[in-house]
Amino acid sequence: MMSAAAKMGRVEADITVIGGGLVGLAVALGLQDRGLRVAVVDEGDLALRASRGNFGLVWVQGKGDTCPAYARLSRRSARLWGDFAAGLQESTGIDVQLTQRGGLFICLEQDELQKRVDMLESMRRQHDGDYPFEVLDPAALRDKEPAVGPTVAGATWGPEDGHVNPLLLMRAMVQRFLDAGGQLLTDGPVERIESHNGAFRLQGAGWTRETGRVVLAAGLGNKSLAAQVGLNAPLEPNRGQVLIAERVQPLLNYPNGHVRQTAEGTIQCGDSKEDVGFDCGTTTEVEAAIAARAIRMFPALEQVRLVRSWGALRVMTPDGYPIYQQSESHPGAYLVTCHSGVTLAAVHAGPIADWIAGENNAGELELEVFHGDRF
Amino acid sequence: MATVSNFKRLPANAAAEVCIWVEGQPVTAREGESVAAAVLAAGLGPTRTTPVSDSARSPYCMMGVCFECLMEIDGQANSQGCMTAVEEGMQVRFQRGIRAVPADTDTEKSTEKEAGENR
């Protein structure tokens, strides 16, 4: 491959990752660990960047209810997260504030709770009983989370759930990548990928880059890039709005699917899902609904003031599950795309990077399930 | 308390005087001023300590963006001093560290809540 690449000019990296968000950086760190010279080509500050807009959950419960392989992948990543975070802290000094002490999914109404319990019980059957969760009635919920309000129906408890500070995570990953000699290029989006003799040339506005292999980790940008190397990435944006409230003394013991409190005391709320194209704005109507639900869950939040809000775009496949695939028509081009870039970061930096680096672990990762041709 | 300030009111400012109380001390302000402006003009501060590192801060941007001017105004913690107009008799305290959330009065249990062990 190196000699083939050399024929088309200077090879600037063994492998180039397109996309410098949490997904691309995790893969890049894993490839660096395996001795490869890695470049990351990033769109820069104007990128849509779900990595900066997300909710920061390292989440397991309920994920993969219609895809057991995805449930296994999420749980595997959650198990790898402790070592991943420790490694980042050791190499960069940055504590990404990972806590994995369990998480709640609070249901306001009884029928909502019943549906959720049915779903988790079905998952437990799919996994032959190996799927830990508990159902909490209001009293049991209040024992775990005393700030919860008097009118909620209950909650499900996932002992493997947790959360992290996604902004510190991003910063730590960039620092580690650069410290290890990685090239981070923010010259704007890749517009064109050409392949010759097993190597690739990436083109943007006014620049080109040569690379031995290429990983597509460009979030929503993967849709047009994938088609250029014979891959199928039918991705659509789904907007989530997030509210940030002032820092207050510890109020919440655990993250839940709607509200969490960061290590610094900031309250973060967000659970909306909207199909509004590439609009990452906010609307008063949706924000009001998010706030009202959060206050019903935790009445004390009525006294806490909002300081900012934003919209961010999820990267969604039609079934919500990832695509991990090497191109058959353009070997050496890999597609890595998912919605849960935080939860899956540890598996991306570990087993997924192993697979791209050439380890024969596709079967163990059940990659046949995550093939883009399923759409 | 300090009384020397680098901030001077314009001589042409003819607004009526208003008395507010800052950390229990009377401070003469002018109608229409923000709490942050009145405190700076009186040479007072730092006006808060930060929740995470406990470092001392004073009003900075004066336009509602930086949140450095957080004070307790008429009992309301974490109020933006630069976005709050002075009123006669207003009680201002400096914000010390992180704000306590009012206890949930519906249940006694919530007051027994312990902080998350990893916070």
UniProtKB/TrEMBL annotation, chain B:
Residues 106-119 have a biased composition (Basic and acidic residues). Residues 97-119 are annotated as: Disordered. Signal peptide: none annotated. It comes from the Bacteria. This is (2Fe-2S)-binding protein. Keywords: Oxidoreductase. Gene3D superfamilies: 2Fe-2S iron-sulphur cluster binding domain, sarcosine oxidase, alpha subunit, N-terminal domain (3.10.20.440). InterPro entries: 2Fe-2S-bd_N (IPR042204), 2Fe-2S_ferredoxin-like_sf (IPR036010). Pfam families: Fer2_4. One of its GO terms (molecular function) is iron-sulfur cluster binding. The keyword Oxidoreductase applies.
